[in-house]
Design goal:
heterodimer; A: 436 residues; alpha/beta; D-Maltodextrin-Binding Protein, domain 2; seven-stranded mixed beta sheet; 19 helices; globular; B: 317 residues; two-stranded antiparallel sheet; 14 helices; 2 strands; cell membrane (chain B)
Chain lengths: 436, 317
């Protein structure tokens, strides 16, 4: 080196890049490459190719493969991000960062947050016309319609409700086992709790898996007004919500709950061990019951849910506004979520269609499930979703539901005082929706 | 950086003598080059996010919507938020319950493993690390099963003894103890080996001399072992504090059914879990960042207090 060095050595000289500089550039380049390739969809090549983010274990892969074999030359890059929550988180981060997939699956519970900023998504009316939502259940499409009328999601499935019950345990308790007679036992929640009391008195065992999910959460889905009113104001203390809350406290007071949290390890084990005789089961839960208790085939059966209607879950396909291949994604959505395709999906994977026009088709209406004593699952679940009243949802719908449900769980699992539960739940909701 | 070329400077580098070889720029700069990668990566992935967190904490920041400057509102709200104080209490409780036993167990074990006449010493020393190299997720799932209310092995034995089953997951103390057990299980081996390495450096003559003078095991422990371990004890106390106040994975996986609250009443929600819930559950980036800043400040303060306290350990003559 000819030039003289300044006494300070903390910055590179201006003449030639030092080894450190070369190294740092290389590293910075590496870092940048890693950062951009880590979780950004790579640009698809062909005009009809696109990228798609979905959850694991939801069966979108089968749809994608069928579409690709029907359309040779089209490549769909499907990424199963993780759970529905993880997918929503990744999508949020992607939208914030500007590198988005062309199509994403969003769980119903996560949709209100995205609907707050509808400009982040393509309005399906611009792709499929004003009646793009017409084939779908009105209350389902209502949840994907923003206050301004944009339709940001096309529903893939819903989770109609029923009560799964153990015939052998019912017989031992002196209760009827025929599904119509069982359904007649509980036209509403008080009679459901009364039936549980009879069962528990006769056997000494718990009747229902838990009150927080099987009673409160289900009754909460049957209201005509939930946490928000039509103007977007809060309504979470309305009488219908309070009623659902009180029913679940009644169930706990009656001592009919096995006090096991839904989806926990004890719950999974309890299905096979007869820890409870009934659980409120949406259509997508049948697979869980089968896999947890394969040897109980023919012992489980399905009755209608108290009040007769109810839905839990379901998902939507949304196209981010920044997507490069909107048309290709729309072409896929239109083809895969058509009423005929949804019916096919039910036959293949058991996911319940959102398109009422094919509810009377024999493939669905006459479908029976041998595991559940040949119950007509299609007919039972579609009946539960037909007459649901759409209620307004908002940014904190999911969180408010969780806080109120946690107030029940606190009584159920942690022996909190039931007399204080409602006040405590409401206070926690107030903290959550505080002026953020 | 501009270097003005002065005649003297030019002469200084060219003026060489036989006894004093020239120190070229390369050699003076090389060490900086070698440490640069860490600092560069730290600047990109550590320092920048840290500073940016302080900025985001001043906003009501919806990652996919509006962001408005709210000044210190997030911090004011944090002070009034019972969920924050609950998470703070839980964090400290779990930290104390896990750190103290872990360090005590490690001290005793290191002393035992340091015995010259221990057979299969290498085997015992290596097996200490098995819990540490097991994945946290696997450990948590196994422990959660062991401690389950209805079907857990532990409650099976408690039931055999004729006692009521203990619900570890849904009580405050129970869940804290359970998480502390997992943390201790994971880290005690690592800490033991650190202590052992330090003990190996203590001259054996000291112990022998003490034995000759009639000092028993306990006396030797307090008068030789502890003082020699002082620096490494300070080190482990500070590192386990930083780790312990950031506990995240165990409470998250302990209660998979309650998402990010670790129980219906947030019995074991730690500060990092609360931060995650607000940031990526509710997408309140501003509020989540404010929690992060608070956690940062708490860790700095506690680590400092720790340093002052632990530097007194073993000072007794």
């Amino acid at each position: 080196m000819r030039t003289t060095a300044p006494p300070l050595a903390h910055s590179p000289g201006r003449r030639a890049p030092s080894r450190r500089q070369v190294l740092s550039y290389a590293l910075a380049g590496l870092g940048a490459a890693a950062a951009t390739s880590a979780c950004s969809p790579s640009a698809p090549t062909g005009p009809r190719d696109f990228t798609f983010w979905s959850f694991t274990g939801i069966g979108q892969k089968a749809d994608v493969e069928r579409y690709m074999s029907a359309n040779p030359g089209v490549t769909i890059k499907l990424t199963e991000v993780g759970s529905s929550q993880e997918t929503a988180q990744a999508l949020t981060t992607a939208i914030a960062g500007g590198k988005v997939p062309d199509l994403a699956l969003v769980q119903a519970a996560d949709l209100p947050k995205f609907a707050l900023s509808p400009d982040n998504f393509v309005d399906y009316r611009r792709l499929g016309g004003d009646d793009v939502g017409a084939p779908y259940l009105d209350w389902v499409i209502a949840q994907a319609t923003t206050r301004g009328g944009q339709v940001i999601g096309i529903p893939t499935d819903v989770g109609g409700l029923a009560v799964a019950y153990r015939k052998d345990l019912f017989a031992a308790a002196g209760l009827p086992t025929d599904r119509d007679e069982v359904s007649a036992l509980w036209p509403d929640w008080p009679s459901f709790i009364e039936t549980g009391r009879r069962y528990t008195e006769a056997t000494g065992n718990a009747f229902v898996d838990n009150a927080a999910t099987s009673v409160f959460y289900q009754a909460l889905g049957q209201v005509s007004e939930q946490f928000y009113d039509a103007d977007g104001g809060y309504a979470y203390t309305n009488p219908q919500v309070r009623q659902a809350f009180d029913w679940s406290l009644d169930a706990l007071a009656a001592g009919i709950s096995a006090r096991v949290d839904s989806f926990g390890s004890a719950w999974n084990a309890g299905i096979g061990r007869g820890a409870f005789a009934v659980t409120c089961s949406p259509s997508w839960m049948l697979g869980t019951i089968k896999s947890q208790a394969p040897d109980l085939e023919g012992q489980w059966d399905l009755a209608t849910i108290p009040n007769g209607i109810g839905n839990w879950g379901g998902s939507y396909l949304a196209i981010p506004a920044a997507a490069e291949r909107k048309e290709a994604a729309w072409e896929y959505v239109r083809s895969v979520q058509s009423p005929a395709s949804q019916l096919q999906h039910f036959v293949d994977a058991g996911s319940l269609p959102t398109t009422p026009e094919n509810y009377s088709e024999p493939e669905l209406a006459d479908f029976t499930d041998p595991y559940f004593s040949n119950a007509p699952t299609g007919a039972i679940f579609t009946k539960a979703v037909l007459d649901i009243t759409p209620f307004p949802v908002g940014r904190y719908t999911a969180e408010i539901g969780t806080e109120l449900q946690n107030a029940i769980k606190a009584v159920e699992l942690s022996a909190a005082d039931p007399a204080q539960a409602w006040a405590k739940g409401v206070r926690n909701v107030e903290i959550v929706v505080g002026d953020l | 950086m501009s270097a003005t070329l002065t005649p003297q400077a030019g002469r200084a580098t060219r003026g060489t003598t036989a006894t004093k070889p020239v120190e070229s720029r390369w050699e003076r700069l090389a060490p900086y080059g070698y440490v640069a990668p860490f600092y560069l990566l730290f600047a990109v992935f550590g320092l920048f996010p840290l500073v940016f967190t302080f900025v985001v904490a001043l906003f009501d920041w919806n990652p996919i919507g509006d962001r408005t400057f709210v000044g210190l509102d997030n911090f004011v709200r944090l002070g009034e938020d019972p969920r924050f104080w609950n998470a703070l209490r839980n964090t400290f409780s779990i930290w104390i319950l896990s750190t103290v036993p872990q360090l005590v167990i490690a001290l005793v074990l290191a002393q035992v493993l340091n015995k010259a006449r221990l057979r299969f010493a290498s085997f015992w020393r290596m097996s200490m690390l098995v819990p540490y190299i097991t994945s946290v997720a696997a450990t948590t799932i196994v422990f959660a099963q062991l401690f389950d209310r209805d079907y857990g092995l532990l409650n099976f034995f408690i039931g055999l003894l004729g006692f009521e089953h203990v619900d570890f997951k849904n009580t405050v103390l129970g869940s804290h103890v359970l998480i502390a057990v997992m943390v201790t299980w994971r880290w005690f081996g690592y800490t033991t080996l650190l202590y052992l390495a330090s003990l190996q450096a203590v001259p054996r003559d000291l112990y022998e001399a003490a034995s000759v003078d009639g000092a028993g095991e306990v006396k030797q422990f307090f008068n030789i072992t502890l003082p020699s371990l002082r620096p490494v004890i300070i080190f482990t106390v500070i590192t386990s504090t930083i780790g312990g106040l950031q506990i995240f994975t165990e409470p998250l996986l302990l209660q998979p059914t309650s998402g990010t609250t670790c129980g219906a009443e947030r019995q074991c929600q730690t500060l990092s879990l609360f931060q995650f819930e607000q940031g990526f559950g509710v997408f309140n980036f501003g509020y989540g960042s404010a929690i992060g800043v608070a956690l940062f400040a708490i860790i700095v303060v506690v680590a400092l207090i720790n340093y002052l306290l632990s530097s007194r350990v073993g000072r007794r003559a």
